[in-house]
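Researcher: Here's my situation. A collaborator sent me these components and asked whether they could plausibly form a single complex. I don't have experimental data yet, so a predicted model of the whole assembly would be a useful starting point for our discussion.
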Amino acid sequence: AQSVTQLGSHVSVSEGALVLLRCNYSSSVPPYLFWYVQYPNQGLQLLLKYTSAATLVKGINGFEAEFKKSETSFHLTKPSAHMSDAAEYFCAVSDQDSSASKIIFGSGTRLSIRP
Amino acid sequence: DVKVTQSSRYLVKRTGEKVFLECVQDMDHENMFWYRQDPGLGLRLIYFSYDVKMKEKGDIPEGYSVSREKKERFSLILESASTNQTSMYLCASSFSLGETYFGPGTRLTVL
């Protein structure tokens, strides 16, 4: 069965600094991987997804993630943090064994931005 | 613009009450999902459905049931609400292997 582990429940960076949110996955088949963002009092919004094409995936708002099979990782990065990036971020994997391609989420990482 | 709507943003119920959470999507998606979100636990799948009248248990189905009589609507039912079901409930929908779209969530408090 597929699963994801997010390292660090809370990450704090200064405005303008590099953002790095870590995610490791476990999957018995080539995975589909996702990063979602949740702003306060809102639902989840897709940031980016990996579906076995290019290993470096670019998403919205300047975020990108790199699929590294050897490390079973899919870390999310952004070169320069903005105050508006403060939110909770979820890494997820698609359970392709399921009839409905359900998505399995990590426990989330709350990103805070210091002025 | 794609839309997943949930019937309530905030709901307060008493222990033992029967609670209905409604979700409607306008994208003709075959798959629909109910998750609950709790701090430090991420999103956990309660039930999902891949077709009308079809349902499958997720990771934490105990204390919940679902109904999907029409393709666009997926209801989550708490037969007898308990305080440990106080949570944020998120509905989602998708085509198979397609992007999953989420509703805004219902914050349920059971007193």
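Model: Some features of this prediction you could bring to your collaborator: The mean pLDDT of chain B is 93. The radius of gyration of chain B is 13 Å.
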